[in-house]
Amino acid sequence: MIETAQAFGIDIGGSGIKGAPVDLINGKFADERLRIPTPEVSTPEAVADIVKQILDHYEVSDGTPVGIAFPAPVKRGKKLDWIANLDQSWIGVDLNAFVSEHVGRRVHVVNDADAAGLAEAQFGAAKDTKGLVIATTLGTGIGTALIMNGVLVPNTELGHIELEGKDAEKYAADSARSANELTWKKWGKRLTKYYSTMEKLFSPDVFVVGGGVSKKSEKFFEFINIQTPIVPAALLNDAGIVGAAYYASVQE
């Protein structure tokens, strides 16, 4: 593996599995990423085979920390009890133990939203922020990550708080904007309700907004009326890989 990398990150998604060596000094890829389509039948064995293929491609040494961003809550030492975007045969699998055994080396699995949040807190839009960072992704749903003074509070699902009698993501996610053909201003008012509720519950020091729509932040940020600073994500699609690599690097 390239010498400027201190860790390796892999991001497992419903359509693609991506990996790259990561320069943890600068929070960037140390080499071009490799993307392989997620198998149509995305069983644990099929997905782990691709993880191994990516690691072998880069000749990742045994001493290099390897982190994997995974699209489900990841509870250390416990088996997976819920999965949305991969085959249901993942339910009942101990992620860390299974993937580590299958690829023949230790890996550290972390929820994908948590990985992205860590990347933004360590290297991106919330770098050097003291206190509580709440990172959110606005897409089909609302993903969340809480990082307190650089320490992750894992597996939060704050896109599911209640707003206007609904699950928040059904009211304020980017998918709700599209489905209801909301103007940016009207969507901004819905986001104001979501983020102001989060303000009251958590008193964060900064919100980071990710997801594909964050590239258009200039269209709707002006309509979000809250007291807490709110900034667009900086690492975009690189965040999962970079955050997973960083997460692995700080595990014992």
Description:
By secondary structure, this protein is α/β, with parallel strands linked by helices. It folds into two domains: 6-112 and 239-250, Nucleotidyltransferase, domain 5; 125-233, Nucleotidyltransferase, domain 5 (2-Layer Sandwich), CATH 3.30.420.40. The protein has eight helices and 13 strands. It has helices at residues 44-58, 95-103, 112-122, 168-172, 174-179, 184-202, 217-220, 239-249; strands spanning 7-12, 16-23, 28-29, 34-37, 66-70, 108-111, 132-138, 142-148, 151-153, 162-163, 166-167, 206-210, 230-232. The relative contact order is 0.17. The mean pLDDT is 94.
Helix content: 25-40%
CATH class of the largest domain: Alpha Beta
Q: In the CATH hierarchy, what is the superfamily of the largest domain? A: ATPase, nucleotide binding domain
Domains, number: 2
Pfam families: ROK (PF00480)
InterPro entries: ATPase_NBD, ROK
Keywords: Kinase, Transferase
Protein name: Polyphosphate glucokinase
Keywords, separated by commas or semicolons:
single chain, 252 residues, alpha/beta, Nucleotidyltransferase, domain 5, 2 domains, 6-stranded mixed sheet, 5-stranded mixed sheet, 32% helix, globular
